[in-house]
## 1
Amino acid sequence: MLDKNRVIVTGMSWCTALGDELMPVWQRLLHAESGLTQLPSSYTLRNNLAGAIVKPVTQDIDEKLHEITKNTVQKALLDAGITHTSQEILLIVGTSFGARLDSEISNQQSLHIWTDSVAEELNLTPIALSTACSSASDAMSIGAALIEAGVADICVCGGADMLSDAKLLAHSALGTMSPTILRSFDQNRDGTILGEGAGFIVLEKHQKDISKKVYAYLLGSGCANDAAGLTSPDDTGNGIRLAIIRSIHDAQLTLNDIGIINAHGSGTLVNDRVESSVYSEMFAGNQPLIFATKGAFGHSLGATGALEAISLILALCEQSIPPICHLHTPINDNLVFPRIHPEPHSAIYGLSLTIGFGGFNTSLIFERYIS
Amino acid sequence: MTYSSLKILHEVSAQEDCFDQLPDDLKRLTTMNDPSVWPVLLTTHSILRAITLQHDVSASQISMLVCGNVYPALYAKKVLLEVQNKRRVSPLSFINANAGAAISVCCTTFHFQGPSLNLTMPSENGEQFAEILIKKWLNNKDANYVFWVSTKILGDDRYEVRNRLVSI
């Protein structure tokens, strides 16, 4: 394995359906609170529940995306103790572009225009990407790769996505939206509930005598395409399997090292069946604790990888994982899911998995930082 | 960290109006896809016909990275108009408006299960980053071959796709 720079997480920030302060939102997750609320719509939808941001800054969807992204990035940088920015800092932003499907203004714009605009205001160099629901995870994977290779010292990585009428209507029509509630890994699950939000983490090259606060190491990442079409996952789970194996290899760990997993857990019939089967098979010798946060945040699409990575990092730091909202009858007896109460643990390594339309599977491995 | 240098094994380019150049079987498969998919699919097919990959490499070791500002504009517009005029969105329009549609269609058609990534920025700005990522995939043995696709909008609804098959 090549000698590479170690990558640390020094700042985090999120804007979610449960709020936008790091530890208060974390506490709400531990108390199994859900941010899914009725969002009245003039359209006929399968469900009017959604994970909407608590304090919207504007109703214009393009402005909302811009402001929420900018504010969250700024807060992440401040959390990392970075008060002066420069073009040497990379801003790596993923989204699934919910906003542009609703907007006459951005619908036919090049996909990087809004990212460039945010980066320019913050005096950062932008990298834009879109891999559906793995967008934010891939953003973090890219940041780590560039730091490991010595191309960058600091990267702010994450994703943002806004609820849009188009996405709500589309998921209603596709049948992926639940008519009831999002129940990750429940035998009675019947679909997902959409959400919105933004999440960013600051990645830096680990220096030997670092004096600032460090949350975790981003130890490894891996991805794989399902090669199964524009929406359907690989029913054999091979895409998920490959992504996990590649991330484990990149982290120079073994499967037995993984103590906790923040799963994709979208609540759809197919996703949760395939995903849980893979975990059951791959971790048969040493089952990690598995949690999922979409029942709390909603499925925030391009932002979800960031919200879930932050949740995983906090779970490692706080040595506790939140219960899965609305989970009553777990899908698989071999797997260990926390229900009702938070579950304490002593895991050092955690894994976060996202699965995106178009077959984009991404796995990230984080290590608890012990100074 | 120093990665091994990339070797370009083959390179093909195509422009936006290339549907008729696709073989009949691929035409049948992709007739309902966004036009931005076709040049990526055509160039990938052309490269696979032109070269012989190592016999022991499986499709799970073949990757695709797309970098550029071409995106499914036709279906993005369709979705917008469906919401405005019909107050509903058809699943076909929605799934084809996915920014990563070209990657998804190519990986599905040719069974590629290597890493895949869609950088949605001008290729001249993104190439330096794309190269690092591709080198990481190849050096980590996540992939043995990568289809490195660069797309560029030329103006007046015209665009160009450049596809390079690379390895180390």
Note: The first strand of chain A starts at residue 7 and ends at 15.
## 2
Amino acid sequence: MSNMSKASEYKSNVIELLMKNDMVVKLLNPTPNENLDLSEVLLGGTFDINGETVTEQGYIFDYYFIDDTITDTKSFIMVEIDMPEIKNGIFVSYILHLYICSNKDIVRLSEHSVPTLSQIKAEGYMGNRVDALCDAIDRMLNGNNAMKAGNIGDVIPYGQYRQIFTPNNKFYGMRLTYKVRNENQVDVNCHV
Amino acid sequence: MKEWYLPNPPNITSGYENDAISEYAQSNFTDVLETMFSDTVLLCNSDLSEQTEIKCIIQGNMSNSQSKSIERTVLFPIGSSVVGKYIYFNNSYWLLTGYPGNNKSYEKIVATLCTFKLRWQASSGKIIERWLAPTNITNSMSGTDRNSTLIMGDNYYYFYLPTDNETKKLKRDMRFPIDFDDAAEPEIYSLDNKKIIGSNYQSSNKGGNLLLTVSLDTFNKDKDKQITLEDGTKVWIADYISPTPTPVEPTTPTDVFATISGRTDLNVGYSRTYSATFKDADGNSLTDVIYSWNIVSSFNSKITSTESNGKITLTINDQTLVGQTFKLQVIVDGNLLSEIEIKVSQSLY
């Protein structure tokens, strides 16, 4: 597998972990669609259901933008990978960025929000929606279960580990940054 | 002055014509109101609870531009019009705007066509409705604000509302749906500005309007609700707080038909939610049926189920079960009312 393929695989593995993380899903609070799977709602796309075209914007993206005009109060996670260097031709540094942002109207958690503040506190989280999302994602990647969670590799916080991310005046969020170390991958099937 | 153009013979006893002009100034206008050139309208207060029939003359019916076509000049008997009242004619409400003036013969005021009924919930829980009169309907907004990462909607409306005890309570950041009542997700607008000075004539007992500016916000599925008014109309209300419901004794009618909604394939690793709806023999919807979910399979222990608000969510994480099927049933009073067969499918991702 090439380095680029590996980068795509990391993004895909991280996204799969995000979708299976109950707290992340709870905080994203996706609008259910009775015709679509939860994963389809989270990833978005265009679907053909019984001859009718159904479109979902999605909540989790493997690129650093959100297509379609945002018309609902939502939260989003964008997963991106940088590869700034290959050391000694052997080790590749994959820099994993997770951009987490919520519409300002839903950042604050209270007893009237979904989920409520009590609900997230009961599970050991605190703070506002963005804080709780960062915490849930960090526990997923940076915790002891990171290696077992699925093929992510050696993940460590990197650089500006947590930095404010405000894509516009209506959204508030954070960027989390991790480093994933792996061997330099060269495609052995060279076609001349 | 010539005598021939006066509608009634002048008073000839004083020898001065100005007495006649003063005496007949307003009656001349009321005479015109008795001709075919007058209109009969309903003069209404801001919440439409008081309506009075009144005759007036409506001018400006033949405008040449779209912006002017929603404005009329209305001539009333002196002392009849108040800014912030509505007049109803031609199946439409028109808001009286602009300070009324008179020339000693009649009173003149501007009326602006009301194009939308604004609704919001007061702190008491009551739904307030007011017809709004738009202003500055053309603007140069493209409709979207595109930066490199997110695309947001971008739009503004400017409109007048009558000044009354409810509209005085409107505050910045209050949200209103401004869209069709049957919209699946209406566009929501947030109050940005409330101007009072320019159209407040209450000190001279001439009423007043508020000039409001609202900007496009985003729909919040947890706060913005479609409700049914007393007259049966379904409308959207932003930031709706539902009143505490009166407890209703659940019933189990004898003739009940159930339908299970949800996809018949369940992908390994992901959850799917199913719901049940009930109808009687006549097809009328039933909402108080007591029921339970039941799963029939040879691998029940591998199916994770959670129930919430009457719905059931199922998850299977065992890849070896791909291709197998199981049944999801709705049980009422120990009787099977409906069931669907669900097939376990490959993981999607």
Note: The interface with chain B takes residues 12, 15-16, 19-20, 29, 31-32, 34-35, 37-40, 43, 64-74, 78, 103, 105-106, 113-114, 167-168, 170-171 of chain A (CB under 8 Å).
